[in-house]
Design brief:
- The structure is a single chain.
- With 191 residues, the protein is mainly alpha-helical.
- It has eight helices and no strands.
- The longest helix is centred in the first third of the chain and has 27 residues, at 19-45.
- The chain is elongated and about 90 Å long.
Length: 191
């Protein structure tokens, strides 16, 4: 079985009223750019087996582009065809990069965290949100001011209209309660 000639890939144009002038011009453009298309495929994709498929895409896009224009010469169509072909090669190259996995499954397991550690983190976040619901709104605000906004105890006390020591002690007790509920045995240092 003989391989199709480059101009045989123009079948994707179909039969349209504009196809009368597009098909012969596009066929001649494909013939003249075929060797360069093979070089581009080999350079960017590593082999030229995808060149016919990518050329068909480029031919179809070129035909759609030319459908709204008045008849052009082969020299005017060649750069348009080559641009669409390069874009098709580039898209295939990027698609190959996204799906390319190198290495073995054991190497991937080392790079990824274990499922157990991920589930523990999720459970901790869920537990923490439930535990914080039990904390009064005033105390949550004090803790957010101190630890979230990094305010001083004096600034937190002014907002809460309490003494510095009272606010600090309340936050410290709440942190100990939260740590105990989460199962963290380690005692926190003085806040």
């Amino acid at each position: 079985m003989t391989l199709p000639s480059p101009s045989d890939y123009c079948w994707v144009i179909g039969s349209t009223p504009q196809g009368r002038w597009i098909a012969p011009v596009l066929s001649a453009a494909v013939e003249s750019e075929w060797k360069q298309a093979l070089r581009i495929a080999t350079t960017h994709l590593g082999d030229q087996t995808l060149a016919p498929e990518l050329m068909e895409l480029a031919i179809q896009q070129t035909a759609e582009y030319l459908a709204n224009l008045s008849p052009l010469a082969v020299e005017d169509v060649r750069p348009v065809l080559l641009r669409f072909y390069r874009n098709a090669v580039r898209r295939r190259q990027y698609a190959g990069k996204r799906l390319s996995f190198r290495g073995t499954a054991t190497e991937l397991e080392v790079l990824l965290p274990s499922v157990e550690s991920a589930s523990t983190a999720v459970e901790s976040k869920v537990d923490l949100s439930i535990i914080l619901r039990e904390t009064s709104a005033e105390l949550r605000q004090a803790m957010l001011l101190r630890y979230g906004a990094r305010s001083t105890w004096r600034e937190v006390a002014q907002v809460m209209s309490k003494s510095e020591e009272a606010v600090r002690k309340s936050c410290q007790r709440e942190l100990f309660r939260i740590r105990g509920r989460l199962g963290l045995k380690e005692r926190a240092k003085r806040i």
